[in-house]
Amino acid sequence: MKYDVVVVGAGIAGPIVARNVAKSGYSVLLIDKKPAIGTPKQCAEGISIKVFEKYDIPYDKRFINREIYGAKLYSPSGYELELRYKEASGVILERKVFDKMLAYYAAKAGADVLARTEALDVIRKDGRIAGIKAKHEDETVEIHADVIVAADGVESTIARKAGINTYAPPHEFDSSYEYEMLIEGYDPDLIHLWFGNEVAPRGYVWVFPKDEDRANVGIGINSDNPQTAKYYLDKWLKENNIPAKKILEVNVGVVPVGGFVKELVKDNILVVGDAARQVNPMHGGGMAEAMEAGTIASKWIVKALEEEDLALLRNYTTEWWETDGERLQKVLKVRKVTEKLSDEDLDLFIQILSGADAEKIAGGDYGEVIKALLKHPKVILSPRRIKLLRELL
């Protein structure tokens, strides 16, 4: 088989690249090792409503469980910070349908799509990578392509085989554990997040409503923690008298929260999405980041093919680092500071921050917020808090 572009991985970034490049008239193959694209999910399934228009994705009720109007944050001692909007600010997806539909949009744009096709290695010819070896329906196939996109997740086989350095230490990953379960008593118009060093070290517990009485209930903690994510989630459920007897699904995953890949391109190989660690280090969400990276990557793939100059692919690395990469580096600084916060600090900041402040901090646009916090009496009286906040400026 011969294509202009082969994209390995049909999560979020891969289908965006495949669709955009196919729309420009180039031959594209999108492959995924799973028999059913989108299954199993490894996601809390929440995403900003803005992505649909920004990345030209239909607002399709088939993959939208419900609209969300904000969030509620809970401190270790039970203080609450609520962000509530008059209009929907986000949605809870059904990832099993959403991912498959993204692949469908790529196919409609002209890309070929093959599920149950696992990339095994790269093909080298005359000192360069000329394609990939894969297994499709238990048969080994060779797929030749001018450009190869590694969108195959955290453990990216193709990036590793191509010699791209994707190493990050264990501390730059979170372990997550999630139940889709019946649960009552939480406003289904909001997502709910609980913080605390005894609740979820370095992370948080979440309840993302899918129905009035059904939600994704999960946790993320630092992966080098001596205890498991499941231990902390079950502990939280027990302490809050939430019966875990109506569990519809269990999902386990590893989430990169740092260690961004420096060189996103090597010769004719590009790495995108989780494979490139393009995830928000603060909340661990990566869908919007994958869409952005996929959009930038596909732009430079098309230009490189149009001008028959694969050296142009390197502009993907430059543009991503000057835009979303720079923003995520700022968010990473926040994550590293929050790791040093005591439960008393978390109580204080949830009491004195506004919803808009919290949103800015999570997005990396926090300069003015930090300057304001440094003037607060309870911060001024603590040299340790002053030192921590100044690390962000």
From TrEMBL:
Binding site for FAD: A13, D32, C43, A44, G46, R95, A119, D274, G286, M287
Enzyme Commission no: 1.3.-.-
Residues holding a 2,3-bis-O-(geranylgeranyl)-sn-glycerol 1-phospholipid: R327, G363
GO cellular component, one term: membrane
Top EC category: oxidoreductase
Recorded GO MF terms: flavin adenine dinucleotide binding; geranylgeranyl reductase activity; oxidoreductase activity, acting on the CH-CH group of donors, NAD or NADP as acceptor
Record InterPro entries: DGGGPL_reductase (IPR023590), FAD/NAD-bd_sf (IPR036188), Geranylgeranyl_Rdtase_fam (IPR011777), Geranylgeranyl_reductase (IPR050407), GGR_cat (IPR054715)
Residues covered by the Digeranylgeranylglycerophospholipid reductase catalytic domain: 174-255
GO biological process, one term: membrane lipid biosynthetic process
SUPFAM superfamilies from the UniProt entry: FAD/NAD(P)-binding domain
Protein's UniProt keywords contain Oxidoreductase: yes
Reaction catalysed by this enzyme: CDP-2,3-bis-O-(geranylgeranyl)-sn-glycerol + 8 AH2 = CDP-2,3-bis-O-(phytanyl)-sn-glycerol + 8 A; archaetidylserine + 8 AH2 = 2,3-bis-O-phytanyl-sn-glycero-3-phospho-L-serine + 8 A; 2,3-bis-O-(phytanyl)-sn-glycerol 1-phosphate + 8 A = 2,3-bis-O-(geranylgeranyl)-sn-glycerol 1-phosphate + 8 AH2; a 2,3-bis-O-phytanyl-sn-glycerol 1-phospholipid + 8 A = a 2,3-bis-O-(geranylgeranyl)-sn-glycerol 1-phospholipid + 8 AH2
Pathway: Membrane lipid metabolism; glycerophospholipid metabolism
Keywords: FAD, Flavoprotein, Lipid biosynthesis, Lipid metabolism, Oxidoreductase, Phospholipid biosynthesis, Phospholipid metabolism
Cofactor comment text: Binds 1 FAD per subunit.
Role of this protein: Is involved in the reduction of 2,3-digeranylgeranylglycerophospholipids (unsaturated archaeols) into 2,3-diphytanylglycerophospholipids (saturated archaeols) in the biosynthesis of archaeal membrane lipids. Catalyzes the formation of archaetidic acid (2,3-di-O-phytanyl-sn-glyceryl phosphate) from 2,3-di-O-geranylgeranylglyceryl phosphate (DGGGP) via the hydrogenation of each double bond of the isoprenoid chains.
Family per record: Belongs to the geranylgeranyl reductase family. DGGGPL reductase subfamily.
Note: Reduction reaction proceeds via syn addition of hydrogen for double bonds.
Protein known as: Digeranylgeranylglycerophospholipid reductase
Source species of the chain: Thermococcus celericrescens
